[in-house]
Amino acid sequence: MQMRWLAVPALLMAFAGLAQAADCPELLQGSLPKLRAKESIDLCQRFAGKPLVVVNTASFCGFAPQFKGLEALYQRYKDQGLEVIGVPSNDFKQESKDGAETAKVCYVNYGVTFTMTEPQKVRGDDATHLFKILAEQSSAPKWNFYKYVVDRKGKVIANFSSLTKPDNPEFIEAVEKALASKP
């Protein structure tokens, strides 16, 4: 009799896990390794229901100073729930092969506090799942610092080229639209 009562919480937890997986938008299924950390980021657990800015980055790109603008954007809107995810990539041949060097550029040189992952493929058949879905919903990144604004349901509502700075009024408008979206 006692064994049956112990099984009930386990079953409830299993069903809750299934319900959470069903609630997770396709965009956020899976995980990515955090930059210079031993942990992985469960994208659904960490970001489901939150407005996002996803950007592919490169430490040695001429657009790297946009890290400062992305950090300012994150600081301005994080209390309203905005998350920024930086995904370094060497797809355009401007990222270090050394994660420590990438981390130094992001964290030391630019003071980034938003989420950064280890370098990933962001284009083509080898692209990480996150970027495959971003490409399906809009387009693949055409260069480094291509920015996607994602609503609380995991849908891309706008994407911006590398030339669009993080303080651009149209970009800010898209971020505020994502912040206003319903989960």
TrEMBL record:
The active site is at C61. One of its GO terms (biological process) is cellular response to oxidative stress. Keywords: Oxidoreductase, Peroxidase, Signal. Pfam families: GSHPx. CDD domains: GSH_Peroxidase. Residues 6-181 form the Thioredoxin domain. The keyword Signal applies. InterPro entries: Glutathione_peroxidase (IPR000889), GPX_AS (IPR029759), Thioredoxin-like_sf (IPR036249), Thioredoxin_domain (IPR013766). Residues 1-21 form the signal peptide. GO terms for molecular function: peroxidase activity. Belongs to the glutathione peroxidase family. This is Glutathione peroxidase. The lineage of its organism: Bacteria, Pseudomonadati, Pseudomonadota, Gammaproteobacteria, Pseudomonadales.
